[in-house]
Amino acid sequence: MNWRQFFGWTLVVLLVIIELAGVTCLVLAYRYNCSLEESASVVPTETVVTDTLVVVPEPKAVEFSIVVAGDAMMHMPQLYPAMLPDGTCSFDTCYHAIAPVLARYDAAVVNLETTLPGGGYSGFPRFGAPDAFAEALHRAGFGVFLMANNHCCDKDRRGMLRTLSVLDSLGIQHVGVYRDVQERDSLYPYMMDHQGLRVALLNATYGTNGLPVPAGMCVNLLDTVAICADIARAKALQADVIIMMPHWGEEYHRQPMPEQRQMARWLLGHGVDHIVGSHPHVIEPVETVDDSLGGKHIVAYSLGNLISSQQQRERSESLLLGLHFRKDTTGTTLTACDTILTRVRREANQQPILEVVE
Hints:
There is one protein chain. By secondary structure, the chain is of the alpha/beta class. The chain has eight helices and 16 strands. The protein has helices spanning 3-41, 76-79, 99-102, 131-140, 156-170, 181-187, 224-236, 258-269; strands spanning 62-72, 107-112, 144-146, 173-175, 177-178, 190-194, 197-205, 218-219, 241-247, 274-276, 286-290, 296-300, 305-307, 317-328, 331-345, 353-356. Strands 1, 2, 3, 4, 13, 14, 15 and 16 form an eight-stranded mixed β-sheet that branches. β14 and β15 form a beta hairpin.
């Protein structure tokens, strides 16, 4: 091999080595760039992800208030002053003074001690009032009518059914009398639900003045077996408060009868929280009963006549009983009890006017 051949082969080898070195550098540069891009998208293992603390707000306390009135009765002297030139009636002026008081509460309840049979007025012993009587009570603020009382059957099946239909048409809730067992099962106990605070209303009467309950219809009676079942159902419906509103006692007695006190103890002992009674047509005591757990239970034996034409002073006075409740995470408690005295003022040939006695 001469020097020319040697120099040629040497040059070829050098060129190959340079080319291989260049290719190697390109490969290494590509891999380095890829590794940088991948490392930029990966969270370093040293990074600590801090959990976010989710604060759940504590449930707000709920407050609810209910006011209960006594017997709404209608007698003949109330009718003629209420007559209008067109032959209709209006009883609204009777309640102007108490309407603002009722408006302070979330719910207002009254005992309707008459029927609405149509065809005008009828008096003792089998009462019937024009529809306007109930309409005025409703406009005053009463949204729930108690119906289980000794006069609920005064106009037999037709009168009872019409009374229920009139109340339904006015949007008035009613407790204690039902068209049949199915209706009672679906509507009783009457439940009030105010933002999750649930109040059950029970209503029953000692009797119906000897008049039979029409076949198939239901009138709640003060029967302990039935009441036990009603209390159990109220609890199953998650009632926070159970209020029994019995029609009981002896007319015109200013003190409760022994039977009332015995029944009150029984009701409280079987799960009723508060008792608000009617029927005696006069005010009977309002008592507070403490239980072993520090709870307080109101027993109002009779609130008297809300409205009537009975002339005696004690039959012209009544109480509006207000109960205030508060529900929070610890349970439901009675926070206040109001007793507001009202009196009926009468003037010749004028409608009776309810006044709030300061």
